[in-house]
Amino acid sequence: MDGESHKMGYLGATSYVVGNIIGSGIFITPASILRCTDSVGLSLIVWVGCALVAILGALCYIELGTSIRDPGCDFAYICYVKWYSIAFSFMWVSVLMTYPATIAIIAETFGQYLIEGLRQYYEISDEIAPTAQKLFGFSLLLMVTWMNFFSLNKFAARFQIVATAAKLISCMVIIFTGFYYLFVKGWYANLAAPMKGSNYRLGDLIIGTYGGLWAYSGWDVLNMGAGEIQRPRRNMPLALLSGILIVTAVYVSINVAYFVVLDVETVKSSNAVAALFSQAALGSFASAIPFLVGILLIGSLNSNLFCGSRYMYAAARQGHLPACFSCVNKENESPRVSVFAQTFLAFAISFVGDLDALIGYVMFGFWAQRIFTLVALIIIRHNQIPVHPEAIRMPLAFIYLFLAITVALVIIPIFQEFSVTALEQNQWITSQASPSAQWDSSSTSSSSTQNTSRAASTDGIVVKSTWFCCVIFDAVPDLKPGVSVVGAIPPSDSAQRLLPKVARGRGGRRGSISSTSRISEDSVPDLHSDEKNIMRRNGSMTGLRMILPGSLVDLIGTTDT
Questions:
Q1: What values do phi and psi take at 229, rounded to 5?
Q2: Cα–Cα distance measured from residue 290 to residue 72, given in angstroms and rounded to the nearest whole number
Q3: Going along 59-162, which residue ranges are E strands?
Q4: Cα–Cα distances in Å, from 18 out to 38, 64, 183, 345?
Q5: Which of 35, 225, 236, 339 has its CA 20 to 30 A from that of 479?
Q6: Residue 343: CA count within 13 A, CB half-sphere
Q7: What is the chain's Cα-based Rg?
Q8: Residue of 23, 293, 313, 28 whose CA lies nearest to 148
Q9: What span, in angstroms and rounded, lies between the C-alpha atoms of 414 and 276?
Q10: Residue 389 pLDDT
Q11: What are residue 229's DSSP bridge partners?
């Protein structure tokens, strides 16, 4: 009974679902969805439809999470049926595109909210606003990158509490203000003809749905802690249904509040819709909303950079990416090379398209991967592949229905919105054409002179890049046992001094680069992580403690069913 008393009950699991889903998305995507639907009513239908998709997906992922207890979410599920090349391809896309694009979205949105906030005090012309918002976003990203070069444990934990408070206050202020004007002041004009001007073009609706699903991301959070929930067969489905319904009510209420105060064209004009709302409805308190949302976005950016860099580090550590990306500073355990790489990629991707296009890139990659994950689940069920004995089984009809929806979300944009999907498709094809899923040359066998020459050339690049990163970032490669950087360390004394003594004193031999894991493998993030998905995969409540005071977490953890 002692073990059960420390597990989350129904209320605790529900509160975690709600807190995990509601994040920066609700302050970023309302304008994106409206630009695709062109009407108040259709945009609200998209929000509700995305909630239904999230519920269905969450139920399917409960079976996956309780059947396959390995960390890595979709990556682990695909590897479970031995589709290693497909898993590697999506890992490649996530590292090079999905995580950096998410970081770019948040940085770009921060710049927009800051510009809207400053416009209340300074005159900023429309000509310089786009450049200014990019500069503000880049400045924030550089600052967060610098902080991630050092130990962030205490800073991140405390700042996540501030960011969560900002999120809750912003939501409550917007909802209460909008409903005050609706029911007390009688502002019904913008809601009088909700379906007027609706755009039913299928491709646009799918892209709009991507925006809604991005706001609902995090519905798979209970996968991470199935072992920490009392009576999981009962409480997990109920908590998911209750939590997503609560989130849906919050999201729809916020959107209704927006439309009570702002007309359709005003909402479509800026992604910083909460800032426009505050200017129109809050008077002297108007500057508070952009400030609160800005704090939330800083927290989101920090946790996304944290997750993206750790994912890249984990892939390099296992030999799936060049060893230089596994380099860790020995004093603060920061994977500095991966942090820098994610920042650089985010800078580059921010110039590829506008905010709507970036969200499309991210969500297309996510949902393309889910097709293979669901097919893997169906194969596991039909072939009766052994899984965890305490797996929770869902009706096959749910899995097939979710698979059909997922296929539609991926296939339709390829034909109707090809520009949005082309970049992800190119990344996937490139990953298939890469030298191999294993950059560790010790596992590469060359049967011909040409292959040997190519392998030697690749090895040379990997060695030189790794040593360059060791010097520039004051870091050392951190690889799993059996994975080597390639070849031997140059025998000179100066080269040997580049490696900390600890790197050679824990089983490593002089003349080779080897190291012991510095970052807990339990902290490897899954493919869908953002500011809401940083709980450790071992089912602990560490993630919850990062966003709520410890006493409240203890109270939730002991909640009775």
A1: -120, 130
A2: 35
A3: none
A4: 29, 21, 27, 31
A5: 225
A6: 22
A7: 24
A8: 313
A9: 34
A10: 87
A11: 8
**Which residues neighbour 78 within 8 Å (Cβ) at sequence distance 6 or greater?**
86, 87, 90, 369, 372, 373, 376
DSSP states of 466-512: HHHHHHHTT-B----TT--SSS---SSHHHHTTS-HHHHHSS--TTS
Structural tokens at position 400: 């097939």
pTM: 0.73
- Given a cut of 60, whether residue 516 has pLDDT beyond it is no
Residue with tokens 């750790």: 310
Instruction: Look at the block and give the residue holding tokens 């239908």.
Output: 45
pLDDT in the model for residue 484:
58
- What gap in Å lies between CA 164 and CA 220, rounded to an integer? 19
pLDDT of 5: 54
The pLDDT of residue 33 is: 93
Q: Calculate the alpha carbon distances from 438 to 81, 323, 336, 434, 553 in Å.
A: 19, 11, 22, 10, 41
Question: Which pLDDT belongs to residue 494?
Answer: 38
Number of residues that this document lists for the chain: 561
Judged against a pLDDT cut of 90, whether residue 199 lies above it is answered with yes
Question: CB–CB of 206/413 below 8 Å?
Answer: yes
Measured at the CA of 246, the angle between CA 245 and CA 247, to 5 degrees, comes to 90
Residue 482 φ/ψ region, left for φ over 0, alpha for ψ in the -120 to 50 degree band, beta for the rest = left
The whole-angstrom separation of Cα 75 and Cα 77 is 6
Contact criterion met (CB below 8 Å) for 131 and 391: no
Q: Between residues 439 and 304, which one has the greater pLDDT?
A: 304
Which residue do the tokens 């970049």 mark?
Answer: 423
The Cα 359–Cα 208 span in angstroms is 10
Q: What is the mean pLDDT of the chain?
A: 76
Express as a percent the part of the chain with pLDDT over 70.
73
Higher pLDDT, 478 or 131: 131
User: Helix H segments across 6-73?
Assistant: 10-21, 30-37, 40-67
Strand partners, 8: 229
